[in-house]
Amino acid sequence: MKKLAILNNKGGVGKSTVSVQLAHGLAKLGFRVILIDLDGQNDSSLFLGISEANYRKTFYDLIDKRSKTDIRECIISARENLDLIPNSNIEEINAEFYRESRIDLVLSEKLIGLEDLDYDYLLIDCGPQRTRVNDAVLCYVDNIIMPVQVEAASVRACGSIYEYLTELRLTPDKIALIVPNMYDQRTKDAKENLEFLKEFFSDKINIVTDPIPRRVKITEAGKMGKTVFEYDDESSNQFFKVLERLVENIG
């Protein structure tokens, strides 16, 4: 099982949107996928049309010492080949993780049994900023996929991910894919920012994917609890290009 974090320290870059599209896209390619929503806003769950009314147990139950919860009890079938573990009480999860002495081992312990469920890919949608939950995720996963909004502040903040990994004593080689998102090819500014992004990561071959254009239909799909593969052919073709690079870079 390949373990991937979708992460950016900056909010508003379309991280949950990218998480959902990649998860469903991999599922449509025939891979068995599980997506863990660890963003406090639960956007990945909502973008798949799953609300709190559909939850039985969540990731929080896995870390609640008063509850002996099997991981299977937290899994929701979201689409064919795609399962979801939602979250609740993210602040309490973060506080609990601060009490753990070995943050590098936390998720291996809390997600015990997951490796036995025959998934090909685990994707974790992370919240923005540096949190103890994200520390645990970065220690646990094999690779990072980083969506970056193609605008100056977001692009120039990319270096912070290297600082974050250094503080955790993790290799920057974990960064496997950069996904330029919300790209407006009509503007000179967007084109310049895309070139800057490519130059910034020029030492890593094929790490920057083709950009995902800013499209109203992508937003509409999420609001309706659908993925682009269910709603808009043109957008789905763009994400399939990203998926090709993902499989090429990660396997």
UniProtKB/TrEMBL annotation:
UniProt domain AAA: residue ranges: 1-170
Q: What is this protein called?
A: Chromosome segregation ATPase
InterPro entries recorded: AAA_dom, DNA_Partitioning_ATPase, P-loop_NTPase
Q: Which organism is it from?
A: Clostridium bornimense
Q: Identify the Gene3D superfamilies for this entry.
A: P-loop containing nucleotide triphosphate hydrolases
Q: What is the lineage of its organism?
A: Bacteria, Bacillati, Bacillota, Clostridia, Eubacteriales
